[in-house]
């Protein structure tokens, strides 16, 4: 299956763009990398997309074998979209594009950021050299989550707006759900967490301004925020 705007080119790259090159398609994939979501959850994670376009992209991704629609088990008992095993192979593609795009001199880091975006950003920008000999478990709670159907129930019975993170030396894992015994819990917004991690926004300043609630081991929390490194920017164009 190809979209109507096929490149009609036998190159694998061209065919890949036939499948995921339409506007919004790869961002829909991004929003599904960490687990299934309902249609309404996808719209919240991609506020600029219209319902009609989202329906078209999902239909195209289903027909190409990248995603599928299924009914989630009770107690949710709702229809969700998820990536197929082949669709999940795009994980490295999305991470690579994210790292490449972050180097752009024109990259606007003040624009909107979904909860899945910041979660994937942390996983992509994790620096194992900075995490040497460090171990910790953390919980990230976002006050205005774009929403998600669960891949697994959290201990509190809520879904989507909470992520559990574990760091064990050079190993970094992040998934939806609550952490069993976190060293620290961050309650904030995705854009604020990005500022804390990448821009040196002080924890104390974020707390005093009401942008962050931090619970638990403050030393471990502070160290956690230093474990991520943005790639060096590409040279600015000479005009």
Q: Quick summary of this structure?
A:
With 239 residues, this protein is of the alpha+beta class. It has 10 helices and 7 strands.
Describe the protein in words.
The longest helix has 14 residues, at 51-64. The chain has 10 helices and 7 strands. Helices cover 37% and strands 17% of the residues. It has 239 residues and is an alpha+beta fold. It has a 5-stranded mixed β-sheet. A two-stranded antiparallel ribbon has the order 1-2. It has helices at residues 12-20, 25-32, 39-45, 51-64, 85-88, 90-102, 115-125, 190-198, 203-208, 218-224; strands at 67-71, 79-83, 135-142, 162-168, 171-176, 184-188, 213-216. The protein folds into 2 domains: 12-94, Arc Repressor Mutant, subunit A, CATH 1.10.10.10; 112-224, 2-Layer Sandwich (Nonspecific Lipid-transfer Protein, Chain A). A hairpin with a 7-residue loop joins strand 1 (67-71) and strand 2.
């Amino acid at each position: 299956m190809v979209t109507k705007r096929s490149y009609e080119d036998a190159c694998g790259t061209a065919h890949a763009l036939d499948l995921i090159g339409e506007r919004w398609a790869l961002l829909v994939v991004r929003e599904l990398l960490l687990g299934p979501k309902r249609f309404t959850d996808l719209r919240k994670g991609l506020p600029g997309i219209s319902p009609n376009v989202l329906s078209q992209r999902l239909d195209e991704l289903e027909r190409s074998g990248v995603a599928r629609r299924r009914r989630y088990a009770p107690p949710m008992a709702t229809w969700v979209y998820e990536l197929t095993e082949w669709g999940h192979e795009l994980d490295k593609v999305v991470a690579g594009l994210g790292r490449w795009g972050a180097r752009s001199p024109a990259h606007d880091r003040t624009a909107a950021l979904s909860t899945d975006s910041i979660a994937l950003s942390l996983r992509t920008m994790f620096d194992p050299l900075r995490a040497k000999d460090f171990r910790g478990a953390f919980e990230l709670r976002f006050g205005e989550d774009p929403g998600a159907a669960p891949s697994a129930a959290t201990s509190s019975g809520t879904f989507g707006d909470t992520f559990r993170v574990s760091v064990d030396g050079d190993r970094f894992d992040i998934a939806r759900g609550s952490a069993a015994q976190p060293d620290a819990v961050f309650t904030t917004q995705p854009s604020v967490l990005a500022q804390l991690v990448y821009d040196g926004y002080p924890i104390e300043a974020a707390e005093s301004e009401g942008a962050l609630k931090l619970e638990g081991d403050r030393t471990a929390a502070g160290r956690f925020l230093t474990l991520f490194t943005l790639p060096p920017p590409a040279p600015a164009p000479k005009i």
